[in-house]
Please model this.
Amino acid sequence: MKHPTKQQGFSLVEIMITLALGLVISGALIQIMLGNNVTERLNQAVASVQESGRFIISRLRNDLLMTGRYDILAPELNRATDVVIEAAYVQNNPIPIVGDFISDASIGAIEGASGANDTLVVSFQGTTDCRGYKLGYAANEEFFVVNQYFVTGTSLQCRGFDGRVLRGQQVAVGNDSNKAYTLLDDVHSFQVQYGVTNTLAAQDNSSVPVRFVTADSLAGLRASGSQVVAIRIALLIRADSDINIDPVPSFKLLDEVAIQPSQKRLFKQFETTITLRNVKNFIRSRNI
Model:
């Protein structure tokens, strides 16, 4: 008579150990997956804010390089006014300040109080304003353009004007000058400084900036014969992402007091200096 085969199996202790090891391994895998997800979101946030920064710096550089340009010999220039006088006005006032324009005295470079956003205004001869508008001029005509850059909420915007309208020489026609165009969202600080030359009394023909100042100093410096030949811009941009950064670092833009955003999000600071080649050439020729 055969005895029944003895059955082998796991003890309760072995099963409990196996389950515990399984939980540890599963937990580690879950942590790795969560970590990878956070890393991917962080990389996406960094990429988005970098792209935004590159875009706006490139856009502003392309716009501002035209500052102070006026060519009275350009065949496309609209000659409905005395272009010699207009050329002198644009070349001597590449950065308009508050009070320059009789039709709207509020249009001009402004220094934001206590670290608030600045307002930048530039003038030049061009084919369109910063929004791409012709302001009533023909397709190929060039005219006296005034562009205003400012922040509303957290949107960096621009608005374009016909300089002849601002000077009271003609009535506005064409596109609405009060309509602002958004260049970039999630801009939490926009700061501007101006590189100025020596005064006329210094007899410095180099046309290089000797220092950088804020907009509230421009009136006095212009009266003494200094001229803006460079613009320094700094922006603080928030990434388009809900990823949390805690604690958020502080940021110091140009000469402003360091600021720390209240939102626990990814922020990045961008800065550039733009040489105004048209103004520099004018200053050199003026000092010959």
